[in-house]
Batch of 3 targets.
Target 1
Amino acid sequence: MQIPERKQGRLPDIVNRETRSRMMSGIKGKDTKPEILLRTGLHRLGFRYRLHARNLPGQPDIVLAKWRAIIFVHGCFWHGHDCHLFKMPSTRTEFWRNKIAGNAQRDSKAIWQLANDGWRIGTIWECALKGRTRRQLKDVLRQTKHWLKHGSGNLVISGTE
């Protein structure tokens, strides 16, 4: 087996640009594993919710109208979280920097609009439910349940680092 020649200290991509583009576009934005884990746990605790409400800014992942609360389950890569799951790609860096910055800007705008409309906002990062810094699911659910029933303001849960 022949090893690809290094260019500027990195290996070239093993697939062509069109294939990589197709692969990246196939990554789900809804019904991700962290989102399903959280939804299943909340449902077992008796919480009822709507999913991906198109009529609300940012199309929140989980809408708990009874509690006037919204939960976003953010992927650390796509939303630029400062954790071990995020690494800026070494190819097309400027494209990815702009893409991730645009996502973060849209997140901020949606959160601002939702807060102005009287919603409480919870953000649960992927690293809280996946990877080496993940928390126990029961702890994430316990914290979320307490915030829904007794908390005011916003909730942010990320990994243990």
Target 2
Amino acid sequence: MALLYAIVGNIERARFMLESGVPYLQLRFKDRPLAPLRAEIRAWKSRYPATRVIVNDSLEEALAVEAWGLHLGQEDADRYAPKRLQALSEGGGPVLGISTHDNFEFARAKSLGAAMVGFGPVFDTSTKVLTRKPQGVDRLASAVKEFDLPVIAIGGIGEDTLDAVADTGVAMIAMIAYLDRLSTYEDVQVLAKRIRR
């Protein structure tokens, strides 16, 4: 059973997803700092207890907003001493997720204390400049079997590919562009239910 992992680029979409009741919400605010929003984001924990909020790229911001999780790309992880990341799992800090593209990167993520890993891009995506070829559903299914951590599928997942991705046994399905097209809470809830099937 997979869960919806919503990724948003601004505070308005974050609020919309919270009201929709998404189980996971990653804040990937590339053009706006989180600092002015810290008090609001900290309050989400009590206001929206069913949603786990994850901060992208910044351990400092994840700690400042008391986020449930932190997600780092492979290059982002280089900014932190391995011992600092490893200590998160021991010290009650945010749950660490790290992006991976192959078995080597998975082993590195695990050594840094990751509790879950992103895997992709599964398909071509318009939300990020790709430095790697799409992995495809078959490779995703292999990763789910090979990796002994929960896998978050990411990259170009939409209406036509959603079921095939969910059938691989991934723990979470990350969506960005497809979610941006949804305009009602009910639309998001129907999507989340479809993923959970």
Target 3
Amino acid sequence: MSVNKNPKGIILIEVLVAISVITIGLVYLLGTYSFSLKISGSKKEFYRANLIAQECLEGVRNFRDNTNWSEDGLGTFTTSTPYHLEKTGLPSKWTLVSGEETIDGFTRRIVFDDVGRDSDGNIMEDGGIFDPDTKKITATVSWQYKGKPYQIELLTFFTNWRQ
């Protein structure tokens, strides 16, 4: 029985296996790091878009509170038509202008829809009795991140609380 007593060959194989294991581990760590950076960047963009959408809703609330609903307020806007916010005057006040607006790669729009209610006064998704003193507002922000389109929508209902 012959036993190979050449440790140089075995040491070489062990070194090659160790280098392979270390290389695979480094590739895995770099892949994980790259993925976490990608996720972190997309979350940052999502967070910014959410803040822009919230600003839209707050701007509409501010506009509603400083206007007369049926004369120059929310009751006068065309439904299913995009609008965006603009500051005007001194002191600055929000106003709504027809069309979308793009700022720093984020496109925002605000759409008004009529609201219907059931016989108990609850808001219905479709149909119902038309409520002229309530509007559904949808704030949509869209953007592209690394070539992929993204969009966030926030919606709320505003009422003519001064009636």
